[in-house]
Write a structure and sequence with these properties.
Blueprint lengths: L1 H38 L5 E5 L2 E8 L3 E6 L7 H4 L1 H7 L3 E7 L15 H15 L4 E6 L2 H11 L4 E7 L15 H9 L2 H6 L14 H14 L3 H8 L1 H8 L10 E6 L8 H9 L5 E6 L5 H4 L1 H16 L2
Parallel strand pairs: 3-4, 3-5, 5-6, 6-7, 7-8
Antiparallel strand pairs: 1-2, 2-4
Helix pairs in contact: 1-8, 3-13, 4-5, 6-9
Length: 313
C-alpha cells in the first residue's frame, strides 16, 4: 500500500511539473510572439488579393522574372536575397509571398494548387505583370505546371530550383498537423528551434541581420493554420498533379541537386521531366535542396546564358 501511495505521489509530482513547464512555455511563447512582431521590419509592398493583403517585392529593371518560394519558406523575399541581388542588375524581379508566407496575411481558404495559383496570379495582375518567366523552388515546380497551363499567354518559360516533380516518392504522407499546431501553441516548437544552427542561412550568403529577420518570421509563420493547411494538402496536391507535365512548347530550365542522398532517382526524374517538352535543359549543381542559398552566382550565370539563347530565337 505504501509503495502504491509513493508511486502515485511520484506520478502526480511529474504530472504537476509537466503542467507547470507547459504553462511556462505557453506564456513565454505568447509574450515572445508579441515582442517579435514589433521587431519585424517591413519590406516590399502590399497588394490586395481576395480582400486580403499579399506582400510582394518588385525590384530591378529589365525582363520580368517572377520568383515563387518552396513550401513553408518563412520569408520568400529574404530567402531569395542572394539571387535577387544578382539578377536585379538586369531584370525586374517580382517576388510573391503567398498567403501565410513572409509579411502576407493568413487565409482560411483551402491551400489547394488551384487556389494558390489563382491568388498569386491575382497579385501579378494587380501589379500589371502580364509577360514573364517563372522561377520557383521546390513545391513551386508543382504550382508552376498549373500556372503554365492556365496562363499560357503570360508564362514564356519555367526555371526550377530543385523543383518538385509530379510522381516523386513519399509525397503521400499524412502529416500530424493537429499535433504540430498544438506543439506550436504550447511553445515547444520555439523551445526546440533554439537548439538548431543557422537554419540553412549560412554566412557569407546571409548576414546576421537577415538571419535575425528570417528567424522572427519563422516564429511568426511556421505551423500557423495557413501553413498547416498547405502541409495537410501536400499529398492531395501531388495526387492531383500525377501524370501532368509542363506544356510541350514551354522552355524549361531545371537546376537540380546533383546528388540527392535520399533519392537516387532525383536527377534522372528531372531529366525525364525535361524530355517531355521540346526545349528542356537540366543543370546539376552541388549543394542541398536549397541550391539558391549557396549557388546563386551559378544559377544567375546559367540562367542568363539560357535566356540569351531563347531571346535570340
Amino acid at each position: 500500500m505504501k509503495k502504491s501511495r509513493k508511486a502515485l505521489i511520484a506520478i502526480g509530482a511529474v504530472a504537476a511539473a509537466i503542467a507547470v513547464g507547459l504553462a511556462t512555455t505557453t506564456v513565454v511563447n505568447v509574450v515572445a510572439t508579441t515582442a517579435e512582431a514589433e521587431a519585424i521590419e517591413p519590406y516590399g509592398q502590399s497588394v490586395e488579393v481576395a480582400g486580403k493583403s499579399m506582400n510582394v517585392l518588385v525590384t530591378g529593371e529589365g525582363e520580368d522574372l517572377v520568383l515563387l518560394p518552396g513550401f513553408g519558406t518563412s520569408s520568400p523575399v529574404l530567402d531569395f536575397a542572394p539571387l535577387i541581388e544578382d539578377l536585379a542588375a538586369d531584370h525586374r524581379l517580382i517576388v510573391v509571398e503567398p498567403f501565410g508566407y513572409g509579411l502576407s496575411d493568413a487565409t482560411e481558404d483551402a491551400r489547394t494548387t488551384a487556389n494558390i495559383v489563382s491568388e498569386v496570379h491575382e497579385a501579378l495582375q494587380a501589379l500589371g505583370v502580364t509577360s514573364y518567366t517563372l522561377m520557383g523552388h521546390s513545391i513551386a515546380g508543382l504550382y508552376g505546371i498549373e500556372f503554365a497551363e492556365r496562363y499560357p499567354d503570360e508564362v514564356h518559360g519555367f526555371v526550377g530550383i530543385d523543383s518538385s516533380v509530379p510522381g516523386q516518392p513519399n509525397m503521400d504522407v499524412a502529416f500530424p498537423t493537429g499535433l504540430l499546431g498544438a506543439l506550436k501553441g504550447l511553445g515547444l516548437v520555439r523551445l526546440l528551434s533554439g537548439v538548431g544552427g543557422d537554419g540553412g542561412y549560412a554566412s557569407p550568403y546571409y548576414d546576421d541581420h537577415e538571419r535575425q529577420q528570417i528567424g522572427l518570421l519563422t516564429q511568426r509563420n511556421s505551423l500557423e493554420p495557413t501553413y498547416l493547411d498547405e502541409m495537410a494538402r501536400i499529398r492531395t496536391n501531388f495526387a492531383d498533379a500525377e501524370g501532368r507535365t509542363f506544356p510541350a512548347d514551354l522552355p524549361l530550365l531545371l537546376f537540380v541537386q546533383h546528388v540527392n542522398p535520399a533519392n537516387d532517382d532525383w536527377l534522372p526524374m528531372h531529366e525525364r521531366q525535361a524530355a517531355t517538352v521540346t526545349d528542356g535543359t537540366v543543370i546539376p549543381l552541388d549543394g542541398d535542396h536549397y541550391l539558391h542559398h549557396t549557388q546563386s552566382p551559378a544559377i544567375a550565370q546559367e540562367f542568363r546564358a539560357w535566356e540569351a539563347q531563347h531571346s535570340s530565337r
